[in-house]
Design a protein that fits this description.
Blueprint: H1 5-10, H2 13-25, H3 30-37, H4 39-50, E1 60-65, E2 71-76, H5 79-95, H6 113-126, H7 148-162, H8 166-173, E3 179-180, E4 189-190
């Protein structure tokens, strides 16, 4: 079997240590975080990914109150899955920085809401008092409308640069239409 560079990077102990530390700050249950520290848990996860059998739990819905008294439905992953998907997210940003637009502020390591609000405030202040300034952003349904082919093309670019990976196959499998068919080499594709 070919070396899977991306999967090896995903299971780097430093990434897991950082994700578990983040999980503590986000109040993920300690028993779930302790389970992620177990080498056998991570080895079983890697084995399942290589076999194309790794799955995360389906997201659950939560209702977030809006200013007008209505509620917004959001989809949230289970805490354990959030830790694992966070590792994958950070790794993909690290592997493919050229795919990240300079004005993108979401899902990046070290960039939270507070930092974005501070940056926007500074930019608005720097423009001076000429005219009326405002800033509003609501992308609540944006990713629901991204055609699957764009997502597939992004994953294809990652693999073109870094080689095929069981992690990418798992991410595709998590809720997208493109399904991998594993051959003897573990890397055959079926669209």
């Amino acid at each position: 079997m070919n070396e899977d560079k991306i999967l090896q990077m995903f299971f780097d102990i430093g990434r897991w240590t950082k994700a578990i530390e983040k999980g503590v700050l986000k109040d993920i249950r300690k028993d779930q975080l302790i389970r992620l520290t177990d080498e056998h848990t991570r080895m079983a996860m890697a084995y399942a990914m290589r076999r194309g059998k790794y799955e995360i739990s389906p997201p659950h819905t939560a209702k977030i109150p809006k200013d007008n008294g209505a509620f917004r439905t959001v989809y949230a992953n289970e805490p354990k899955d959030r830790a694992e998907l966070g590792i994958a997210n950070d790794l993909l940003f690290e592997l493919m920085p050229e795919m990240l637009h300079s004005s993108c502020k979401s899902y990046q390591t070290g960039i939270g809401c507070g930092k974005v609000v501070t940056e926007v405030s500074h930019r608005m202040t720097e423009t001076g008092n000429s005219g009326c300034l405002g800033w509003k952003s609501d992308l609540s349904k944006y990713f629901d409308s991204v055609p699957i082919r764009f997502i597939d093309e992004a994953f294809d670019k990652v693999e073109a640069k870094h080689g095929q990976s069981a992690l990418i196959l798992s991410l595709i499998h998590i809720g997208r239409c493109r399904r991998p068919t594993l051959g003897r080499d573990g890397c055959s594709w079926h669209h």
